[in-house]
């Protein structure tokens, strides 16, 4: 029981399968966890729709970061939703700086697959690690800086998908 509600072991297993595949860099296995109509959002890629775009993002990120480490904990799921906490460790390509990003994930399930995946993390903390001082420290909290990072990320994804 989670907060008085029934636990769904199948959905919890689906979350674990996704992160196990992620840790192995197995994008085909990751894709099998997602519903065709999946949506994904996080502080950088605010809203991606459809399995091809969401998986395009994961393939791009894994392709650029050969040293990505993924660890998941606190997986919980019910019939229609679930949560997990995961840690991503990697070297940020733009600066060569090490990043350890703590992420809280929310999931919705439909037809036995993940139909909604939303990750939340501290953008300012991430920017300090990824970009260093003074850029990340001074500008990581500003809306204009966030918009610039988001725009670059989306352009990178568009370029990656066109080249794919």
UniProtKB/TrEMBL annotation:
<dbReference type="Pfam" id="PF12680">
    <property type="entry name" value="SnoaL_2"/>
</dbReference>
<keyword id="KW-0413">Isomerase</keyword>
<dbReference type="InterPro" id="IPR037401">
    <property type="entry name" value="SnoaL-like"/>
</dbReference>
<dbReference type="InterPro" id="IPR032710">
    <property type="entry name" value="NTF2-like_dom_sf"/>
</dbReference>
<protein>
    <submittedName>
        <fullName>Ketosteroid isomerase</fullName>
    </submittedName>
</protein>
<feature type="domain" description="SnoaL-like">
    <location>
        <begin position="15"/>
        <end position="117"/>
    </location>
</feature>
<dbReference type="GO" id="GO:0016853">
    <property type="term" value="F:isomerase activity"/>
</dbReference>
């Amino acid at each position: 029981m989670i907060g008085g509600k029934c636990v769904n072991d199948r959905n919890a297993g689906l979350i674990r399968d996704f992160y196990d595949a992620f840790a192995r860099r197995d994008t085909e296995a990751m894709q099998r966890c997602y519903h065709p109509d999946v949506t994904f959002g996080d502080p950088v890629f605010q809203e991606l729709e459809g399995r091809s775009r969401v998986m395009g993002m994961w393939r791009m990120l894994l392709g650029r970061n050969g040293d990505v480490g993924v660890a998941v904990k606190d997986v919980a799921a019910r019939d229609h939703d679930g949560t997990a906490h995961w840690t991503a460790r990697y070297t940020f390509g733009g600066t060569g700086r090490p990043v350890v990003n703590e992420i809280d994930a929310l999931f919705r399930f439909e037809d036995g697959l993940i139909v909604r995946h939303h990750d939340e993390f501290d953008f300012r903390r991430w920017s300090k690690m990824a970009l260093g001082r003074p850029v990340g420290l001074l500008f990581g909290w500003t809306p204009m800086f966030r918009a610039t990072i988001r725009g670059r990320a989306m352009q990178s994804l568009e370029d990656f998908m066109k080249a794919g």
